[in-house]
Amino acid sequence: MDLRHVPAARDRGWYLALMAPNVKGPNYAWLDPSRLYCHPQGLQDCVADLLQPFRGDAIDLVAGIDAMGFILGAAAAAVLQKGFLAIRKAGHLCVETLAQPYTDYSGRQKLMEIRTDVVAPGLRVLLVDQWVETGGTMRAAIELVERLGG
Q1: Which of 14, 76, 138, 144 is spaced 20 to 30 A from 84 at the CA atom?
Q2: What tens-digit pLDDT sequence spans the chain (150 residues)?
Q3: What is the pTM of this model?
Q4: Does residue 91 sit in helix, strand or coil?
């Protein structure tokens, strides 16, 4: 699909056709959304659709999970006019952090970190990731936000 082309009829989810097919073989069960992110209208419509279930919810902050959750999370934060917090894999933040162990999609044990000076008790945080394979990174992010009172 031409990255400059916007269909006249933009049915819900039209932008999914922008995702590049899997070329890495049967061990990879995902499509690459980076081409979708390059399409201005596709990205806008995708974020609008992703946020639809949360319209009317009180959201104070949007957090994206390392690393691809940063793209959709930052875009969602901009649309909602909220701040954005990056929840990182261990070792990438140079500030005081709180860590949470998790098991990734490959079964490896890892650590997720959050800075400790942003989330305060009662803060309502919308967590965003590109996809959730096993739930390990999302569970770790939820635990980190909740440990800080969010």
Answers
A1: 14
A2: 677 788 888 999 999 988 887 777 777 667 788 889 999 999 999 999 999 999 999 999 999 999 989 999 999 999 999 999 999 999 999 999 999 999 988 899 999 999 999 999 999 999 999 887 788 999 999 999 999 999
A3: 0.91
A4: coil
User: Which residue do the tokens 């959304």 mark?
Assistant: 33
Q: Can you tell me the distance from the alpha carbon of 133 to that of 53, in angstroms, rounded to the nearest whole number?
A: 21
d(CA 70, CA 125) in angstroms, rounded, equals 14
3-class secondary structure, 93: coil
H-state helical runs in 21-135: 34-38, 40-51, 69-80
**Residue 10: C-alpha distances to residues 38, 44, 45, 57, 96 (Å):** 17, 12, 9, 26, 45
Give Dmax (Cα) for the chain.
Answer: 49
Distance between CA atoms of 125 and 145, rounded to whole angstroms?
A: 8
For the chain, list the domains and their CATH numbers.
Answer: 1-53 (no CATH), 56-149 (3.40.50.2020)
